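Practice record 12: protein with nicotinamide-adenine-dinucleotide.
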Amino acid sequence: MAKLINGKQISAQLLEQVSVQVQQLKDNHGVTPGLAVVLVGEDPASQVYVRNKIHSAAEAGIRSVEHRLSADTSQAALDELIDKLNRDSEIHGILVQLPLPAHLNEDDVIAAIDPLKDVDGFHPLNSGALAAGQSGLVPCTPLGCMIMLQQTHGDLSGMTAVVIGRSNIVGKPMAALLLQANCTVTIAHSRTRDLADVCRQADIVIAAVGRAQLVTEDWIMPGATVIDVGINAIELDGRRKLVGDVDFNSVEPIAGAITPVPGGVGPMTIACLMKNTLSAARMQLSIPD
Ligand code: NAD
């Protein structure tokens, strides 16, 4: 039976550490980190994510400001808001909840955010820094996965890792972080041949695909660590249920360690957003981490 990597517990510890450091920033420098969360439209999942982020910010002692814009907001109006937030010295982090309505250009919106306030780590300057092994703000989901892996294994040097998925948000930054930790990394995707065989070679499998229960027991080397990033809603016995990209029930008996869905990567992502907001505030105030 696999060790369960408890994202709820690890994220609660991380959030506690962040809140202690936020308090120190307030006491020693008179600064409260500020996070602006921008939500365009009424996507139900996005509304839940935003609510959870605002809640966690309060828990960490971070001041959050929510900007809710209608689904027909123009690119110019969104740019104007981002420009205002970029110049607001009380806002240290800006998060624009994705996906945006189809008429808005996500790349342009991300590029408009001040890289020092880019707490999602999606700005090309931050993704470039990560690819080059330089410091910068790192995307929250892969950062959360790394914290869980490091708690599980300590040093990851020399381990083989397969990342399934090559998005800018999860797959690519995840692979860059694993490479930085001296893993031998393979990035697999929708065109990868013999995906099950590729995964079966790995000490670590990260599934970031968005296909319910795609990864089954025959994809996993016995004893491997499996991190399930996927969040997929399925109908089971007439009820809506959230499952990952990993078929937990078949993989868990043979894996060495595994994250559940829910309660795995999800809460780590939000805790890392708070960690990044604190880091962004420190960077802007030139206070070392
Ligand atoms: P995406 O759609 O941008 O990318 C999916 C990737 O999977 C693509 O690179 C594609 O090549 C690959 N892919 C698609 N079908 C495949 C297949 N059959 N075999 C192999 N590869 C395949 O998605 P994303 O934004 O990277 O998110 C991936 C999943 O992670 C989604 O379920 C999303 O909801 C979830 N997610 C969770 C969190 C969290 O906090 N837990 C955060 C971000 C994303």
